[in-house]
Amino acid sequence: MLMEKLVIKGGNKLKGEVTIGGAKNAVVAILPATLLSKSVVTLENVPDIRDVRIMMDIMRELGANIKLIDKTTYEIDTTRVKAKTVPNETAKKLRASYYLIGAMLGAFGEANVSLPGGCDFGVRPINLHISGFESLGAKVDIKNGMIKATTKNRQFVGASIYMDEVSVGATINVMLAAVKAKGLTIIENAAREPHIVDLANFLNRMGARVRGAGTDVIKINGVDFLHGCSYSVVPDQIEAGTYMACVAAAGGKVTLKNVIPKHLESISAKLEACGVLIEENEDGDELTVSREKPLKPCNVKTMPHPGFPTDMQPQIVAVLAKASGTSIVTENVWDSRFRYVEQLLRMGASITVEHGDMAVIQGVKELNGAQVNATDLRAGAAMIIAGLSAKGTTEIEDIYHIERGYENVVEKLQGIGANIKKVYIPEDDDGITVA
Ligand code: EPU
């Protein structure tokens, strides 16, 4: 068995251009949504990441025919999908496998899906998904780790649903279930993330009638029939934000292509407060990010969109680890998303976590390369950021977490001047065998 690691020699300033891919959290909802049309969908700007490959494998197991047309374009044919069960081995590899419940309920009136996996940052309940399905008229049972949901007469009836918490997953799942329901569904206190809007745009392209996505009230008029379409996935807000954080930490000047600056406003505002310069091009699809002077500290609180995204929290902490002063970062979305801090301490960061939800970061002059783990996807991104700005060599293990959500991360970083490579090491050996 070979173990994969990332090896980063820190200290290089970054320069050049990097192209941002399609959004992970949009594609993992759009792929299940194709089941609703029982026809052929052409999807462009699909990122080549592990979570997408897993979701495609699950879809193929269900009977979908998925063909790669070119590098980032796929044709998805769901005309022959009949299976309504997603078994444990596949579902547990991916948090977003629960979108198959909403999609299969909407498409077939029935779904059997194992409880999902995904990054571990404390309790990740799905009560809002279940109560949303029930409000639409489904019967939901959880037995032996499987969620079994059925609708009466194979059809949902529109309903008014108030979400007690702002939940991306529950908002998406109810949207998927409701597009073919009878009558009007209203989701109040809906999540407003760019991937919610992207899913709504995709559903509407297939003939759905979804209004209000991007606000906290989404209205869905059910339709009987959805058809195939072509659609290009929105650029990934978090991938873009992560490269912005790389430049902030390492210094230099990089242009990010294929971005939506509006989606990046909360991230840009905080990086600018730290002394990073950010310029938008005339066409509004590129940002040039540069940092020459030492980083200044700043305080950050994560919030649902349009607030500062929790999925950028580890990355901003890695940036602030070298700011000249004290920063406070408060996590308001997840109970337990500071586990990776321990890894930054190994690199010489000075961070204390208080009450589990607040990191007090005393900026240090230097971080030192060390052997660290990617404890989850965004934590792994934070290790890369810290490694790029550290003195010496950083080795990151458990990089499969990073590959779940970042396409060609090594090539993209090498393209902007980072000294990073992936190495393969026999598990029972210390020697690096392949570069
Ligand atoms: N919540 C409930 N009940 C529910 C669902 C959620 O109480 O039924 C709570 C959660 O405990 C949490 C809050 O609501 O405190 C927000 O959770 P949400 O449902 O929005 O999260 P999610 O849908 O499971 C998605 C992203 C995450 C991202 C969160 C928040 C996908 C596949 N995942 O998760 O992305 O952190 O929204 O923005 O879209 C990542 O990409 O690294 C990642 C973890």
Unreliable spans: 431-435
The number of helices is 14
Question: For the report, how would you describe the main beta sheet?
Answer: 4 strands, mixed
CATH architecture of the largest domain: Alpha-beta prism
- N-to-C CA distance: 16 Å
Radius of gyration: 22 Å
Quaternary state, please? single chain
Bound molecules: uridine-diphosphate-2(N-acetylglucosaminyl) butyric acid
CATH structural class of the largest domain: Alpha Beta
Secondary structure: elements and pairs:
Elements: E1 2-9, E2 14-19, H1 24-33, E3 40-44, H2 50-62, E4 65-70, E5 73-77, E6 85-86, H3 88-91, H4 99-108, E7 110-114, H5 127-135, E8 138-143, E9 146-151, E10 160-162, H6 168-178, E11 184-188, H7 194-205, E12 209-211, E13 217-221, E14 229-232, H8 237-250, E15 252-257, H9 265-273, E16 277-280, E17 286-291, E18 300-301, H10 313-320, E19 326-330, H11 341-346, E20 350-354, E21 358-362, E22 371-373, H12 377-389, E23 393-397, H13 400-403, H14 409-415, E24 419-426
Helix pairs in contact: 1-2, 1-4, 1-7, 4-6, 5-6, 8-10, 8-12, 10-12
The structure holds uridine-diphosphate-2(N-acetylglucosaminyl) butyric acid (EPU).
Uridine-diphosphate-2(N-acetylglucosaminyl) butyric acid is lined by residues 25, 28, 95-96, 119, 124-129, 165, 167-170, 191, 310-311, 333-334, 377-378, 405.
